[in-house]
TrEMBL record:
Lineage: Eukaryota, Metazoa, Chordata, Craniata, Vertebrata
Signal peptide coordinates: 1-21
Originating species: Amphiprion ocellaris
InterPro entries associated with the record: Cadherin, Cadherin-like_dom, Cadherin-like_sf, Cadherin_CS, Cadherin_pro_dom
Superkingdom in the source lineage: Eukaryota
UniProt gene name: CDH13
Location(s), subcellular: Cell membrane; Cytoplasm
Function: Cadherins are calcium-dependent cell adhesion proteins. They preferentially interact with themselves in a homophilic manner in connecting cells; cadherins may thus contribute to the sorting of heterogeneous cell types. May act as a negative regulator of neural cell growth.
Name listed for the protein in its UniProt record: Cadherin-13
Pfam families, sorted: Cadherin, Cadherin_pro
Primary localization: membrane
Keyword set, alphabetical order: Calcium, Cell adhesion, Cell membrane, Cleavage on pair of basic residues, Cytoplasm, Glycoprotein, GPI-anchor, Lipoprotein, Membrane, Metal-binding, Repeat, Signal
Length: 718
């Protein structure tokens, strides 16, 4: 415990070495703090209680109100006249004293050097430490290494002594030297601190930066001249005292925030935050915020307030005045200053800009610019007929401004529709179903407009949010209209030329006028029809053929026109569809035209053939297929019916490999029936292993003589 007390007292004794001197010199205007940084007091014996030693010069540039002074040696004080005086009789003093002056506007340190002090003996050092007879006798030396405080940013000249260490011993001194080791001495950053090997004075060789390194831990020891350790090592802590040399810095130069119009007073908009690299344990890093400029400054230069300590920007303006539609602008710029030293006049400042946007709420209903809109549209046309205009004071970039239109009455047949033009918010009223002048000359529509976003609770849609649209239908000469369209009739093909097919009927929609109508053929693909210009009677001018390529699915289509005698004339078109019934006017034929059988009657000696007819049932199948009338064919060939459309040809005995023309007779089932004599090429082939080898030579006639010769040749070969 005694050792701890002695170290503490030694720290108090050497506290003068804790703070380096402030830079000398002045500048234009008042500089808060000590006007003279260094003072000197000559020691000529004991300092007596109340004896003025020096008068310090301190000015905080604000009248020196509430200035407080502390002296590193508590045996001294600074009185009201700024005199440094002892509190009591002081026999011994530290070689350096520090005077700390502080007020709301200044914070500074001055150094007082005490000259002429005698070298302290062990007895005197005990008196300085105030231990009296309590200091026990020791025969060994004791190394005193008090901590040191050095102010950053000192100016030359260098090196500067910042502390002195000594050895307390009852023995004769002089056989030791001091050594200093550690970061800042013999380690990086090397050479920053040095020690006088004889006196133990520690010096700093250049200016320090607390924001780079805020403290240094070194070791002090003593050795003899041969390098043998005598005392130590003892820890030397050098603390760098902060100066206010860093301005507050905002992370960004420009900040943005939003506040909804009509917000209550005191609504928080955003928070500004700046940072100061100085010591957070001192006022050097204590920040205060302030708004120094608002642009524009209408309707009030103090629409916003910033919490000095937290940096919260809140609204000051009343909710009524915070109206986006009546304010001169929707964007306000605030210049924010952050000042350290807790906002005192000597503090350093940093600046940023806060841009606040007044956002919109839907507190204005859209209103039509006119209660009545008029439109004129020609009958039979479609498209936009009128653009409805509205006013809305809300923000055009939001759903509080964008309009939605609806037809609330006057359009039971849904002939109209209304859409919003996204570019100008106008309502585009369109006709989607053609209007008829003769039916209704006027249409009266009632239109309502609303916003995409709902209105705020205390605002509603008024009468101006509805409007009337009067649409006048203008008469035009409309073309005659066929009825029915298409006209469908059924006729049998091949009716006599000149037969009546249909009677066209077209009426003129312009019922308020008396007009005549004339008919004409517009499109008659096969050229089969003609029409009476006045009566509209359609007659055949050629035979109707159901099997024609112009007929599809038994239907023939022609188009006719009806033209009135209006000014100018108008034309309408109508379609005639003739459903053609079949007449047995096409004989059937056998397919395929080539059939194959094997020469050996015991192999594949059967071929299948079928009938084909362009006509429809019952004028087609079932078909009757039989051998031709030539005598003797039935000795070699036989035709047997398979089904209603196909029959099989059978070879009754072996024939020589060759091609034979076989006459067949095919008859359809029409009334009266139609027959067709045709020949089928029958190839008699050699069949081996399921393969047929047929002749490519010309066909032989299947006449009785030819067949007889073939039969005799075959019998001779057996």
């Amino acid at each position: 415990m005694e050792t701890g007390v002695r170290i503490l007292l030694a720290f108090l004794l050497h506290q003068a070495a804790h703070v380096g001197g402030q830079e000398d010199g002045g500048s234009e205007g008042c500089v808060p703090g000590f006007q003279v940084k260094n003072y000197e007091v000559a020691y000529s014996g004991a300092f007596h209680k109340g004896q003025p030693l020096i008068q310090v010069e301190f000015d905080d540039c604000a009248g020196n109100e509430d200035v407080a002074f502390d002296v590193s040696d508590p045996s001294f004080l600074v009185d009201g006249d700024l005199n440094l005086v002892p509190r009591q009789d002081v026999r011994y003093s530290a070689p350096v004293l520090f005077v700390h002056g502080v007020s709301a506007h200044a914070d500074d340190i001055a150094q007082v050097d005490v000259t002429g002090l005698p070298l302290p003996s062990a007895h005197a050092l005990r008196d300085i430490l105030g231990l009296g007879q309590k200091l026990p006798y020791r025969s060994k030396r004791s190394l005193l290494v008090p901590p040191v405080i050095v102010t950053e940013n000192q100016r030359p000249p260098f090196p500067r002594i910042i502390g002195r260490f000594c050895v307390i011993s009852a023995e004769k001194l002089g056989n030791h030297i001091f050594r200093l080791t550690g970061p800042g001495a013999d380690q990086d950053p090397k050479g920053l601190f040095t020690i006088d090997i004889d006196t133990g004075d520690v010096s700093v060789s250049r200016s320090l930066d607390r924001e780079a390194i805020d403290s240094y831990q070194l070791e002090v020891s003593t050795t003899d001249f041969s390098g043998n350790l005598i005392e130590g090592p003892a820890i030397l802590m050098i603390t760098v005292m902060d100066q206010n040399d860093n301005r507050p810095i905002f992370k960004e130069t420009r900040y943005t925030g939003e506040v909804l119009e009509g917000s209550p007073t005191g609504t928080t908009v955003m928070t500004m935050t700046a940072f100061d690299a100085d010591d957070p344990g001192t006022d050097n890093a204590v920040l205060r915020y302030n708004i120094v400029r608002q642009s524009p400054d209408k309707p009030s230069p103090n629409m916003f307030y910033i919490d000095a300590e937290r940096g919260d920007i809140v609204t000051v303006i009343s909710p009524t005045l915070l109206d986006r539609e009546t304010l001169p602008t929707t964007r306000y710029e605030l210049e924010i200053v952050a000042k350290d030293m807790a906002g005192s006049e000597v503090g350093l400042t940093g600046t940023a800009t806060a841009t606040i946007t007044i956002t919109d709420k839907n507190d204005h209903a859209p209103e039509f610019t006119h209660p009545l809109f008029e439109a004129h549209v020609s009958e039979g046309s479609t498209g936009v007929v009128v653009n409805l205009t509205v006013d809305d004071r809300d923000d055009p970039a939001t759903g509080a401004w964008r309009a939605m239109y609806s037809i609330i009455s006057g359009d039971p047949a849904q002939r109209f529709e209304i859409q919003t033009n996204p570019d100008n918010n106008e309502g585009m009223l369109s006709v989607v179903k053609p209007l008829d002048y003769e039916s209704t000359m006027f249409h009266t529509l009632y239109i309502r407009v609303e916003n995409e976003d709902p209105l705020v609770p205390d605002v509603g849609y008024g009468p101006s949010s509805t409007a009337t649209v009067r649409v006048t239908v203008e008469d035009i000469n409309e073309g005659p209209v066929f009825f029915p369209d298409p006209l469908v009739v059924t006729r049998v093909e091949n009716i006599p030329v000149g037969s009546v097919v249909a009677s066209l009927s077209a009426t003129d929609p312009d019922t308020l006028e008396i007009q005549s109508i004339r008919y004409a053929v517009l499109h008659d693909p096969a050229g089969w029809l003609s029409v009476s210009p006045v009566k509209g009677t359609v007659n055949t001018s050629a035979s109707l053929d159901r099997e024609s390529p112009y007929v599809h699915d038994n239907r023939y289509t022609a188009v006719f026109t009806a033209t009135d005698n209006g000014i100018p004339p108008a034309t309408g078109t109508g379609t005639l569809i003739i459903h053609l019934e079949d007449y047995n006017d096409n004989a059937p034929y056998v397919v395929p035209s080539v059939a194959r059988v094997c020469e050996d009657a015991h192999d594949m000696n059967v071929a299948i053939v079928g009938g084909w007819d362009k006509d429809l049932p019952p004028n087609a199948a079932p078909f009757k297929i039989e051998l031709g009338k030539q005598p003797g064919l039935d000795k070699t060939w036989k035709v047997t019916r398979v089904n209603s459309t196909h029959s099989q040809i059978m070879l009754l005995h072996s024939l020589k490999k060759a091609n034979y023309q076989l006459p067949l007779l095919i008859t359809d089932s029409g009334v009266p029936p139609l027959s067709n004599n045709t020949e089928v090429k029958v190839q008699v082939c050699i069949c081996k292993k399921n393969k047929m080898h047929c002749s490519s030579a010309h066909s032989h006639s299947a006449s009785p003589l030819g067949l007889l010769a073939t039969l005799l040749l075959t019998l001779l070969c057996l």
